[in-house]
Amino acid sequence: MAPLRSIVWAPIPCLSSLFPMLGHFGITDSVGMIHDFGGDFYINRSETHTIFGPPTLYTQLSEECWSAISDEEWDSALSITMANYQKKHYNFFINNCHHFVAAVLKTLSSGKKKYTIFSLIRAFRLGRTVKKMPGRNAPPASHSDVLGCEDA
Fold first, then answer.
1. Domain residue spans in the chain?
2. Burial letters for 53-80: b for 16+ Cβ neighbours within 10 Å, e otherwise?
3. Which of 22, 27, 128, 150 is most buried, judging by how many CB atoms fall within 10 Å of its CB?
4. Distances (CA, A) of 76 to 29, 72, 106, 111, 131
5. Which of the 8 DSSP states describes residue 2?
6. Separation between Cα atoms, residue 2 and residue 134, nearest integer Å
7. pLDDT, averaged across the chain
8. Which of the residue ranges 16-25, 29-38, 105-114 would you say has the lowest mean pLDDT?
9. Distance separating alpha carbons of residues 110 and 9, to the nearest angstrom
């Protein structure tokens, strides 16, 4: 399982080799199940993989900002967003995995915050706590301040 309540990133074959800043995003629920927008009307759910394979990076969201949200609220926001995206067409430029993760975060903030592709990419490329995915027996990661309250 991936770390609980975190954003995960997986490289896209060939594309990520040419453009390392590009990759595939997913978000985990309160038990570590990965959810990622995988194409027209499709949300992938897996304990270990995105549609492009296992995540290689993750970041947990700022505990300061997100700790007031219960696991039930977190999973409910994810379910609401999944239901919406299961009715949507995929578009590489305007409706993709990045938009899906940003929509979950916006739902979690009751629409008060605006998360974008750029804030997600910044979390992984400029954030201080980018981590490689732990092995099965690795300890849980510490929380980070990446994508905290100030990012909206």
1. 6-135
2. eebbbbbbbbeebbeebeeeebbebbee
3. 27
4. 9, 6, 13, 14, 26
5. P
6. 8
7. 80
8. 105-114
9. 24
